[in-house]
Amino acid sequence: MAATGDDDATAGDRLHLERFVPYRLSVLTNIVSMSIAQAYAREFSLSIPQWRIIAVLARFPNLSAIEVAERCAMDKVAVSRAVQSLLASKRLVRAYDKGDRRRSILRLSAAGRAVYMRVAPVALSYEKQLLDTLSASDRRVLGRLIGRLIDRAREIAPETGVTTAEPRP
Amino acid sequence: MAATGDDDATAGDRLHLERFVPYRLSVLTNIVSMSIAQAYAREFSLSIPQWRIIAVLARFPNLSAIEVAERCAMDKVAVSRAVQSLLASKRLVRAYDKGDRRRSILRLSAAGRAVYMRVAPVALSYEKQLLDTLSASDRRVLGRLIGRLIDRAREIAPETGVTTAEPRP
DNA sequence: CGAGGATGGTTACACTTGAAACTATCGAAC
DNA sequence: GTTCGATAGTTTCAAGTGTAACCATCCTCG
Questions:
Q1: What is the gyration radius of the CA atoms in chain B, in angstroms?
Q2: Nearest-CA residue relative to C1' of D19
Q3: Disulfide engineering: A79 pairs with which of A69, A100, A147, B133, CB 3.0-4.6 Å?
Q4: How far away is chain B from the Cα of A124, in angstroms, using its nearest Cα?
């Protein structure tokens, strides 16, 4: 127990970590990410980046590595590494663009699709469990708020470079 | 086969990454954390764990390492390391409990408080900027939703051990 | 007292991650 | 065609992180 008791933040501006939204978001995200990761890491030995790549390629096949990076909010180094391990485990197939031979074209293999088919329901059911404490209207609001905050965070981010999802259309 | 480049997720259960709440939370948190970290990492060479420890000790002085860990949602190894570097940079003072000599007692030094005084306003102003796209009522709702989701995530987390903040009172 | 177990904290090692440098290809300008 | 700069992707090396093993101290129960 804090000997002096409490709150020694003598600034005019008080930062209460436990009410500080960035901090709380980070706590929430950590718990959620770890929970989901556990579900697939154990059974399929997938890392988080690997799983993201599978998920995005399941939905948008034939992306290049950089396009994957944009959609996944990962940087290209992380994508490169995850792609290599997915190629090694034969869950991914890589071709190269005829016209531009720098550009890779990534698709899931049958094995990759199989992994997706088994992991996706687990992920979705986790999300369902997580959200079912909220009312339908709270869920809608949550979705809207997250969207707004992401947009806003991007606006005020000091040119963070790559950790930005959603390719500009 | 969708060579057209769209939605090949032929499962009955479709995972739309861009609508998947855990994913969106992770994107949001990444952008936010990196933005804030940049602010203090550059000027004060503080890592995220270091900054968290400073913030929590500014508010609750004389905690032990484990109490810090609980409040920061960090594990004790991370705390140990961050404490060491903060001791090395003279931003922290460590004493040991008279009654229980295993137990450390951590406090900010004058230098540590000075860092806090300069970083806290930056963090708060970032939060303000982030949230000022939302109406006052949306902000309240957001706070409530995050709280609910953290509780829920803890409930359904498969005994993740330590990544859990808020000591039980 | 002293053995066994719990608790606070640190160390060791393997693995992941990030920043920067590097290769290779492309497009355009001269 | 050659040079220059941009783009796609990889490699490298250093730093960060997690797990497990490890000391030291404390507690308790015989």
A1: 20
A2: B77
A3: A69
A4: 7
Tokens 């990759």: give the residue: A112
Estimate in Å the CA B76 to C1' D27 gap, whole number.
22
Question: How far apart are the C-alpha atoms of A96 and A106, rounded to whole Å?
Answer: 8
Task: For residue A56, list chain B residues with Cβ-Cβ distance below 8 A.
Answer: 17
How long is the CA B167 to C1' C8 vector, in angstroms?
16
Of B161 and A76, which is predicted with more confidence?
A: A76
pTM here is 0.84
Over range A83-107, report the average pLDDT: 95
H-run or E-run covering B151: helix B136-156
Nucleotides of D under 7 A from a protein CB: 7-12, 16-20, 24-27
Note the pLDDT of residue B158. 58
Q: Which is more confidently placed, A162 or B9?
A: B9
Q: Name the residue type at position A166.
A: E
Q: Alpha helix locations (H) across chain B? A: 21-44, 48-59, 65-72, 76-88, 110-131, 136-156
What pLDDT is recorded for position B41?
80
Q: How far is the CA of A34 from the C1' of D28 (A)?
A: 37
Enumerate the H helices of A60-169 as residue ranges: 65-72, 76-88, 110-131, 136-156
For chain B, what is the mean pLDDT?
Answer: 85
- Chain B: residue whose CA lies nearest to A148: B133
pLDDT (average), residues B2-28: 70
A16: chain B residues, CB-CB within 8 Å: 59
Query: Are A107 and A120 in contact, with CB atoms under 8 Å apart?
Result: no
Q: Alpha-carbon distance A30 to B65, whole Å?
A: 21
